[in-house]
Specification:
2 domains; 11 strands; five-stranded parallel β-sheet
């Protein structure tokens, strides 16, 4: 099924690109996830998902790109980030290599929302050239598969369950809690990293994580109407994480069959 690029010789890669035009590219981040979760959460989840999908479909799987744009998390030590301006050109460089080798369909499996701007730019650029590209994010999928998996926030019960399934030794449930987002002013309550509520309306900001939370984990209110924001990540289980991984991987595997049928003409 899937072909892992990092374990191929160049001659094997040459042959693989002759017959396999779909490439899976996992992208993530190294950033804080509250007091109970490891810094590598985003890229570890993306990498694992790409491998699970690769077991089901004929695709070339690149090494995970572990560092993205997370400058707003750097109030918390250990977070690593490139600049927003540098990320898209960095992605573009190695994607151009894949296209030159013969890839026609590139599916990013993204584990960090801060990469979205760069990935959107890359996908548009590739579409202009007649290359089919898209990026997926597991939290955009999981909540639609089960209300139980609706997004609650950064370092929430769903994300914690996935890490318990993947690397339980790196998760500290005794440090997990239901986060409380700060207020910017007495009547201005932060909803997430970019929005706050004032008298029933929403005001948009460009906040750092430290503005929102003292512990790094935070609620992201408004992403899902199905979410129970009182659920504590301390109730996460590895079994639930395994179910989430399996369901999202199957969804993405099913989508790749549809994805391969999408074709564009280059814009001249």
């Amino acid at each position: 099924m899937g072909k892992t690029l990092a374990y191929m010789t160049w001659e094997q890669a040459k042959e693989a690109f002759k017959t396999t035009k779909l490439v899976l590219v996992p992208t993530g981040s190294v950033e804080q996830h509250g007091p109970h979760m490891p810094l590598g959460t985003d890229y570890l989840i993306a990498d694992h998902l790409a491998k699970l999908v690769g077991e089901k479909v004929d695709a070339i799987i690149t090494p995970v790109i572990p560092i993205g744009y997370a400058m707003y998390h750097t109030d918390f030590p250990g977070t690593l980030s490139t600049t927003a301006a540098a990320l898209a050109p960095y992605y573009q460089g190695f994607i151009d290599c894949l296209v030159n080798y013969g890839a026609t369909h590139i599916l990013f499996i993204n584990g960090h929302g801060g990469n979205g701007g760069a990935l959107s730019s890359i996908c548009r650029n590739l579409r202009e050239r007649g290359i089919t590209a898209a990026y997926t994010q597991w939290w955009d999928i999981a909540g639609g598969l089960s209300k139980e998996w609706a997004m609650i926030g950064h370092g929430d019960i769903v994300e914690t369950s996935m890490m318990l399934a993947l690397a339980p030794e790196a998760v500290h449930l005794d440090r997990a809690n239901v986060p409380v987002n700060k207020k910017l002013a007495p009547n201005t309550q932060i909803l997430d990293g970019s929005a706050a509520k004032f008298k029933g309306g929403v005001i948009r900001f460009g906040l750092r994580t430290g503005d929102t939370s003292d512990t790094g984990d935070m609620l992201e209110i408004g992403h899902s109407t199905e979410a129970d924001y009182a659920l504590s990540p301390a109730k996460a289980t590895a079994e639930n994480g395994q179910r989430i991984f399996a369901a999202v991987a199957q969804y993405l595997a099913d989508f790749t069959e549809e994805f391969k049928q999408i074709k564009f003409q280059p814009i001249k």
